[in-house]
Amino acid sequence: MDGVVAIGGGRLPTGFFSTPMGASVRAPYRGTRAELMEVLDLARAGAVHVEVEKYTLDEVPEAYRRLHEGAVRGRAVVVPGD
């Protein structure tokens, strides 16, 4: 069964001198559960870095404002407060 694995932003410069010979770049919208497991294995191995901005429930309006402005780096995640 397919499902949404992640939708991330970012930039990758491509061109004759910036992309290794024979390399290909894809930006898929979704992946399979098996592909998600592969990504998690890469993360456990330290090959993937995920950026997260944490917000408490009281900070959700600020998180939405920053999301709207495109100012959130990585994911905005709501966590329990102290």
TrEMBL record:
Tell me which domain of life the UniProt entry assigns to the organism this sequence originates from: Bacteria
The molecule here is called Zinc-binding dehydrogenase
Which species is listed as the source? Geodermatophilus africanus
